[in-house]
Amino acid sequence: MQNFHHSQFGDFPQLAGIKHSSGQRISVCIPTLDEADTIGEIVSTVRKVLQEQHPLVDEILVIDSGSRDVTREIAAAAGATVHLAADILPELECHTGKGENLWKALHVSTGDIICYVDGDISNFHPGFVTGLVGPLLTHPEIEYVKAYYERPLAYGDESHSTGGGRVSEILIRPLISLFFPELGGILQPLSGEYAARRATLESLAFPVGYGVEIAHLIDLARDGKLSNIAQTDLVKRIHRNRDDEELGGMAFALLRVILRRLERDGKISLATPLPALYQSWAVDGDGIRRSSRTIPEPERPAMNSLLETA
Questions:
Q1: What is the per-residue pLDDT for 164?
Q2: Alpha-carbon gap, residue 18 to 26, rounded angstroms
Q3: For a FRET experiment, which of 3, 20, 101, 189 has its CA 20 to 30 Å from that of 94?
Q4: Which stretches of sequence are listed as region Disordered (predicted)?
């Protein structure tokens, strides 16, 4: 697996020239839900540096899950084309979640290369895009590029240089070691920043929630494309840290996606269907509060299968 550093692709005019000569289009797609604090700077940076100063990115798309703040308005004012996820392919059953937004972004985008960037990054710089699309422009054998980085963890007003990516280290890394050791070299398997060729993305199923990134890696490895995956060091990613209750639901969704693939690939046999009800407990004042919510994590089919039946 090839590893890069984003600084290797710091010559933006050269990258833009390679892109122009190849005739490829590049789409930057950002899934959002209540990201008013950060989305403006992300979109503005891409527009100013990678569109106006250096013509590398052809379109900036924001796919929103129904933000209750002014995320969509800020993104549009900063220069993005904004879509409400529910308005894309409205004839299909509606789902909400990150993977749903990414799948629908693939449908409405026009790029030959799709670069996904999360909308909550507070230290965004152009390397989040150039470091991911650069390997695809300069290495034709590469199909999919994952980001990795240091992930600080914030506790109130304090910040620790490590400790982020808790679900990756506590849940995903052990499962990879047990069942998918071929993926052990992926440094940030759940990173939300990655770029890929359209044909590759259109061949993959998209779980509608947080399971989308690990599903892609498992399915690419199953299809014999591990050697076509690369990763780029973006140094550091600072974002809004999730609380334990939210991370618990995320882990539940991830487990459902992984267990389905383990059964599909004949690695385990499930005696009963997986439940969709996630149950948790939390301290509430002087008592303990029980909560439950349904996290079904359905999957959107590979886009190329949808296009074939259209």
A1: 46
A2: 12
A3: 189
A4: 289-310
Q: Model confidence over 153-173: pLDDT tens digits? A: 654 555 544 444 688 999 999
Q: Is 53 left (phi over 0), alpha (psi -120 to 50) or beta?
A: alpha
Task: Give the separation between CA 77 and CA 80, rounded to whole angstroms.
Answer: 7
**C-alpha–C-alpha distance, residues 285 and 208, integer Å:** 34
**Summary count for the chain: helices (H), strands (E):** 11, 14
Q: Set out the domains of the chain in order of their start, with CATH numbers.
A: 2-243 (3.90.550.10)
User: Whose CA is closest to 65, among 86, 39, 37?
Assistant: 86
- At 307 the three-state DSSP class reads helix
CA distance 305 to 244: 37
Beta bridge partners of 230: 2, 145
Tell me how far apart the 2 most distant CA atoms of the chain are, in Å. 66
| Number of C-beta neighbours around residue 177 at 10 A | 11
Q: Are 186 and 146 in contact (CB under 8 A)?
A: yes
Structure-block tokens of residue 19: 């892109």
Q: 126 near 56, Cβ under 8 Å?
A: no
How many CB atoms lie under 10 A from the CB of residue 143? 21
| Cβ partners under 8 Å of residue 2, min gap 6 | 135, 139, 142, 230, 231
Nearby residues of 245 by Cβ (< 8 Å), 6 or more positions away: 280, 282, 291
DSSP type of residue 90: T
Residue 233 near residue 191, CB atoms below 8 Å: no
Q: Select from 77, 28, 34, 72 the least CA-distant residue to 50.
A: 28
The model's pLDDT over 20-65, given as tens digits with 9 standing for 90+, comes to 999 999 999 999 999 999 999 999 999 999 999 999 999 999 999 9
